[in-house]
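Per reviewer request, we include the raw input and output of the structure prediction for the construct analysed in the revised manuscript.
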Amino acid sequence: MIKDFDSAAFTQRSPFPWYNFQSLLTEDAFAQLYDEFPSLDFFEKHEGLSRDYGQRSHDRYYLAYEKTIYKDLERDQKGIIHHAQLSPAWQAFITRLQTDPGYLDFIHRCLA
């Protein structure tokens, strides 16, 4: 699982690191998170938003966890989901990501 992840092989891929992360979640855990993914009703639809330096807009559905970089979303709260609004499976998953030393070590090994 995550402790066995070969971070050296991951970071040596060129030009960009990629990896099939399929083994990091069990099939049952992935299925539950997939089935309980937040409803599209929580998402903010972004279309035609201007971006710096003349970049094209990112036309997409946007959802932030707890806070957003888009100040205008702070008023109506669409596009932001809070921990308590998530299913118990998603709450447990995010809590583990934030507190599990093994996961934090994994991120450090892959991105440091």
